[in-house]
Specification:
Length: 346
């Protein structure tokens, strides 16, 4: 057997050094690759946030355009256009966001069904108009997928990124301090002049416009045509107190289910002090013939044409749509013409 001269034999220490160097180089390469890829991940998160901000802004702008004063139903086309315009005012990683998907429809606030329903469905009591916006960086969309500077180390050179947002408008579940006019109307009266299927006032065939009617106490009008002064959560039956409420509104927030005091009597002198040609929000109750605390079932938008005292004793006007309540209103209630400004769905 041939013997290798000692001078050609590998030195054990040198072999260990060579192995350590190789391992060090491998670890350094992996650390560099991981660090570089982390930079790509951070970049992708920034771009994702930019897309989300654009989607949020587009959804809110679209939802804000759903209701225009005087419209009988949600303006789906305008909502789509405004949502797309708002998205286009944004950019992602310096790339203008000129493309987006803007979908109008109905959102069920109870989550049953979940997601966005088509705008062609007949809305139920828990369905509210909404707009969903999706903004993407993908093939042939908004500059294409995000290019990754170091993703090649792991075989990933680009990444599609997308963000979605949905915003909606709804009737208020509560109204903040100062948001209500101190007349309560019966649910029966509202059903007489409001089309729940269309979410709009019923039109008078003679004029093609919403029915104009008189609101007065049940002493002078039928139950389904009556309304009464309310002092909200205070049992106060004097005219001075009501005059203060006409000027300042409800002194505390009120929500559906809370009780409001229905005043007795007519108080005809107050009718002459009613503001005219204004939109107000009023509480709707089951009935106004019981002079007691009664629960609120909804909040309605009403346009006051005039107030007549003396022998008349009524407020004349019509139901209207698209009247925003104060921005700090909360909850979800039936849409009776008054709505909370758009909110993002969670």
């Amino acid at each position: 057997m041939k013997t290798i001269p000692k001078r050609f034999r590998p030195i054990p220490a040198l072999r260990r050094q060579q192995g350590t160097v190789a391992l060090f180089v491998l670890m350094l390469t992996l650390i560099f690759a991981a660090g570089a890829f982390a930079l790509d991940i951070g970049h992708a998160l920034v771009v994702r946030n930019e897309l989300q901000n654009a989607a949020d802004a587009g959804a809110l702008a679209g939802a804000r355009a759903l209701y225009n004063p005087g419209a009988d139903s949600p303006n789906w086309g305008t909502a789509q256009a405004q949502g797309a315009i708002m998205v286009s005012l944004n950019a992602s990683d310096g790339v203008p966001l000129v493309q987006s998907s803007v979908e109008p429809g109905y959102l069920n606030v109870t989550g049953t069904p979940a997601g966005l329903q088509p705008d062609t469905v007949v809305p139920g009591a828990d369905d509210v108009p909404a707009v969903r916006v999706t903004v993407s960086r993908a093939d042939q969309t908004n500059g294409g997928p995000l290019k990754l500077s170091f993703g090649g180390f792991v075989g990933l050179r680009e990444a599609p990124i997308s963000a979605t947002a949905m915003a909606f408008v709804s009737g208020p579940g509560s109204v903040a301090k100062g948001g209500l006019f101190p007349i309560a109307i019966s649910k029966c009266l509202y059903d007489t002049y409001w089309d729940s299927a269309k979410m709009a006032p019923k039109n008078d065939p003679a004029t093609g416009k919403p029915y104009t009617f008189k609101i007065g106490s049940d002493y002078h009008y039928a139950i389904c045509s009556s309304g009464q002064w309310t002092s909200f959560q205070v049992d106060a039956n004097d005219t001075t107190f009501i005059r203060g409420l006409i000027d300042n509104g409800n002194p505390t927030p009120l929500a559906i289910g809370d009780k409001t005091w229905i005043q007795p009597g007519t108080k005809n002198t107050i009718f002459d002090e009613v503001p005219t040609n204004v939109d107000v929000v009023i509480p709707v109750v089951v009935n106004v013939d019981a002079h007691a605390y009664v629960p609120i079932v909804a909040f309605a938008a009403f346009h006051i044409d005039l107030g007549v005292g003396g022998s008349g004793k009524y407020v004349q006007g019509h139901f209207t749509t698209n009247v925003p309540v104060t921005s700090d209103a909360t909850g979800n209630g039936p849409y009776y013409g008054a709505f909370i400004p758009p909110r993002l769905a969670q």
